[in-house]
Design goal:
Helix content is 44%, strand content 10%. It is built from eleven helices and six strands. It has a six-stranded mixed β-sheet. Helix 7 crosses helix 11 and helix 9 packs across helix 10. The two termini are 36 Å apart.
């Protein structure tokens, strides 16, 4: 078993999840501050450290800066609701908690947390680490490899899930994890406002990629009228959207920033 275990946490995915999970029973301080996000995020963090025993751990945040994806498609993530005030107020507290626990915070303007995690995961794998990406987000399936896994937090009283290549390929009915990008490109993603091809859902996307392997293969088949029914016309009419959506769904793994994995070694927290 590999001795070096790096856990990379997708901060905002876990913060939002923690906040909403406790929304029916909010944790309020005596001065009326909602601490759902702080409480839930810290619980997940402590559970990972205690049960999974990582040797290294870092937390990756998005920044407010626009990314390359916004330049490609101005409407990217445009339909997201405003972040609740309680979450905005929680972020500085969570960063303080991480600083006190001597856990590095990784973020890069112009890139999303997904990209930072993708870059560090691939880099750490080359250095002999087993990497666990802590996130409920399906997009990360494209990054999974022999030594890189998704660590999906427990939900609705279930156990946490660890997803490797086998699990990702079975979930999407694909031959290799890169095809996750093609499926996301075809079906789109309402959360990130990635358009995809209108009328193509997860099942149709999986079926088309199983048969034609890539979006480019699907577009060629549609052009040659090899795909039956109205879906063929929809694909032809939205070929540019499909290719753009594939681009938007691709996690960038060569982010220009320097960091030191030595700083991610688990240490005793600063009690002060």
């Amino acid at each position: 078993m590999n001795e070096k275990k790096l856990y990379l946490l997708d901060a905002f995915a876990l913060i939002f999840r923690a906040y909403h999970a406790l929304s029916k029973n909010p944790r309020m301080t005596s001065t009326g501050i909602n601490t759902n996000a702080q409480f839930g995020f810290t619980n997940t963090l402590l559970e990972i450290i205690k049960k999974e025993k990582p040797t290294h751990l870092a937390v990756c945040f998005d920044t407010a800066a626009k990314t390359e994806r916004h330049e490609t498609f101005a409407e990217y993530k445009a339909n997201r609701q405003e972040t609740p005030e309680d979450i905005l107020a929680a972020v500085p507290h969570i960063m303080q908690i991480l600083t006190a626990m001597r856990i590095p915070i990784l973020k890069v303007d112009g890139y999303e947390a997904d990209d930072v995690i993708g870059h560090v995961a691939k880099d750490a794998e080359k250095q002999g680490f087993q990497v666990y990406m802590v996130t409920p987000d399906k997009d990360y399936g494209q990054l999974v490899s022999e030594n890189i896994f998704i660590w999906k937090p427990p939900a609705f009283g279930n156990e946490r899930q660890i997803l490797g290549v086998k699990e990702i390929c079975e979930k999407w009915q694909i031959q290799n994890v890169n095809q996750v990008i093609d499926i996301l490109g075809l079906m789109g993603d309402a959360v990130d406002n990635i358009p995809g091809v209108p009328g193509v859902g997860e099942k149709t996307a999986s079926k088309l990629i199983a048969e034609y392997h890539t979006i480019e293969g699907v577009l060629q088949a549609a052009k040659e009228k090899k795909i039956a029914g109205k879906i063929c016309d929809k694909i032809n009419d939205n070929a540019d959207k499909a290719l753009m959506s594939k681009n938007l769904a691709t996690i960038i793994t060569d982010v220009p920033f320097t960091y030191n994995l030595e700083e991610a070694i688990i240490e005793e927290p600063s009690k002060d």
